[in-house]
Amino acid sequence: MKVKIDSSSLELVQGDITQQETEAIANAANSRLAGGGGVDGAIHRAGGPAIMEECRKIGGCPTGHAVLTTGGNLKAKYVIHAVGPIYRGGNKGEAELLKSAYLSCLKIASERGIKSIAFPSISTGVYGYPIDEASRIALTTCWDYLMEHQEIELIRFVLFGEANYRAYEKTLKALEQERR
């Protein structure tokens, strides 16, 4: 599914984020930038040791923020490591931290002249964020950013599995109805 926002596109695909040919891919990282399971582990395995070397030099990243490294052996030139919140019921600032993680990635992309970025669904795996809430935050944040920042031509959400894709598709359709 694809939505045009001025001259930019917001797109949903089901697939493997490590195979994306966008300029940058976002990683659902932990605050130690230590690699891990899920998306984080897959990106580190596919990208090779250069990514971890840069992560070690950076040292860490607070929740709600992001840092940039090389893409290593990936098709993407860059990886933007975003640290989303662990979901603890929804009343501990999780929504603000998740929005901040996406915004941090987008700001880095704008500052670096990155025209295309692929995102996973940040915080919805082992961090337990409910996908319906997380997709609303992610898609609204990206849509709003594109309204003000036409330098980013493409934001693609690469969703693992049909259930995740369907959740984002439902949210994007609702958002499109509200905003058209």
Describe this structure in words.
42% of the residues lie in helices and 21% in strands. By secondary structure, the chain is an alpha/beta fold. It has a single domain (2-179), classed as 3-Layer(aba) Sandwich (Leucine Aminopeptidase, subunit E, domain 1), CATH 3.40.220.10.
Structural class: alpha/beta
Largest sheet: 7 strands, mixed
Specify the oligomeric state: single chain
- N-C termini distance: 16 Å
Helical residue percent band:
40-55%
What's the total count of β strands? 7
The H-and-E topology, N to C, reads as: EEEHHEEHEHEH
Strand order of the largest sheet: 1-2-7-6-3-5-4
Classified by CATH, the class is Alpha Beta
Mean pLDDT: 97
Poorly predicted regions: none
Radius of gyration: 15 Å
Shape: globular
Give the number of helices.
5
Task: List strands and helices in order, with pairings.
Blueprint: E1 2-5, E2 8-14, E3 24-29, H1 38-47, H2 49-58, E4 66-70, E5 78-83, H3 94-112, E6 116-119, H4 131-148, E7 154-159, H5 162-179
Parallel strand pairs: 2-7, 3-5, 3-6, 6-7
Antiparallel strand pairs: 1-2, 4-5
Helix pairs in contact: 3-4, 4-5
Keywords:
alpha/beta, Leucine Aminopeptidase, subunit E, domain 1, 180 residues
Provide a brief overview of the structure.
The protein has one domain: Leucine Aminopeptidase, subunit E, domain 1.
